[in-house]
Design a protein that fits this description.
alpha/beta, Rossmann fold, 6 helices, globular
Length: 132
């Protein structure tokens, strides 16, 4: 199964968060999963990285495959966006990841479950919420 890692998890990994490291190790160590990210999530990471972050970012991204965006994914994402944008503030990049996961039968690992309210999308919180 494809495990789509959302950009928020990768950003925490790049910031040195042990929970992100554990999540990625757990997924990478499970032969049932292949690590993937959506095209827009990759773009989000590489477009906003600082020059001093480039080596670590490239190394991290080399561990994941990037899912292509084709006409079918765009059409599904557009449907999801129109359905969920107003009620849940769905962004285009999250709609594209949801459509990508839906089409491949993959699961999204994120810290932002509210970004993926669609019942037809498999989504899991990357690690438990902190309890203050």
């Amino acid at each position: 199964m494809r495990a789509y890692v959302d950009a928020d998890v990768l950003i925490w990994q790049l910031r040195g968060d042990a929970r992100a490291t554990e999540c990625l190790r757990r997924l990478a160590g499970d032969p049932a999963y292949e690590l993937w990210l959506g095209a827009m999530q990759r773009a989000e990471i590489v477009c906003f990285m600082r020059p001093e972050e480039e080596a670590a970012t490239v190394l991290l991204l080399s561990q994941l495959r990037t899912a292509p965006v084709d006409q079918a994914v765009i059409d599904d994402a557009a449907r999801l966006y129109r359905q969920w944008h107003i009620s849940h503030g769905l962004d285009l990049h999250d709609a594209l990841l949801a459509a990508t996961a839906m089409r491949s039968g993959g699961r999204i690992y994120t810290l932002n479950l509210k970004h993926y309210p669609m019942p037809e999308v498999s989504v899991e919180r990357a690690w438990p919420e902190d309890r203050a």
